Amino acid sequence: MDQSLLSTVGDKLKTQFGNGIISSEMIADFPVFIVNRDVIDEVVKFLYHDETLAFQYLTTLAGLHYPDNKGHELGVMYQLHNLQKNHRIRLKVFFSIQDPVVPSITSTFSGANWMERQEFDFYGIIFKGHPNLKRILNVDDMNYHPMRKEYPLEDATREDKDDRMFGR
Amino acid sequence: MSKNDKNTKSELIEKEYSTLNLGPTHPATHGIFQNVLKMDGEIIMDAESTVGYIHRAFEKISERRPYYQITPLTDRLNYCSSPINNMGWHMTVEKLLGIDIPKRVQYLRVIIMELARIADHVICNSVIGVDTGAMTGFLYIFQMRERIYEIYEELCGARLTTNIGRIGGLERDFSEKAWAKLNKFLKDFPKELKEFENLLMRNRIFMDRTVGCGPISAERALNYSFAGPNLRAAGVDYDVRVMNPYSSYEDFDFIIPVGTNGDTYDRFMVRQQEMWESVSIINQAIEKIKREPAGVFHADVPDFFLPPKEEVYNNMEALIYHFKIVMGETEIPKGEVYHAVEGGNGELGFYLISDGGRSPYRLHFRRPCFIYYQAYAEMVKGAYLSDAILTMSSMNVIAGELDA
Amino acid sequence: MSKIEKSKIEVVSSPPGIEGPGFFATSIDKAVGMARANSLWPLPFATSCCGIEFMATMASTYDLGRFGAERLSFSPRQADLLMVMGTIAKKMGPVLRQVYEQMAEPRWVLAMGACASSGGIFDTYSVLQGIDRIIPVDVYIPGCPPRPEQVLDGIMQIQKLVETESIRRRDTPEYKQLLAKYNIE
Question: For residue B335, what are the β-bridge partners?
Answer without folding.
Answer: B354
